Amino acid sequence: MENINFIEVLGYAASVMVAISLMMKDIILLRCLNFLGCSFFVAYGYSIDAWPVAGMNAFVACINIYHLVKIYRGRSLQAQTA
């Protein structure tokens, strides 16, 4: 059996994580899993010198963080007014 290097495993893990995230009904879980998958893709892209892969996934990871912060701030404001 061939040896699979860590970088390949990282790429596969990133792909699986993003695919699983897109099956989630809960938007918070979707954003968290997608952020994790994007983070893995950033590391993978950096490792193989694929800057478009790393850059685009870093951008998507930032979008996920933005929306998670927005969701949690909205919940915090609702709790304060209740």
TrEMBL record:
**Entry superkingdom:** Bacteria
Keywords for the protein's UniProt record, in alphabetical order: Membrane, Transmembrane, Transmembrane helix
- Transmembrane ranges, per UniProt, are 6-23, 28-44, 50-69
Name of protein? Uroporphyrinogen decarboxylase
Source organism: Shewanella saliphila
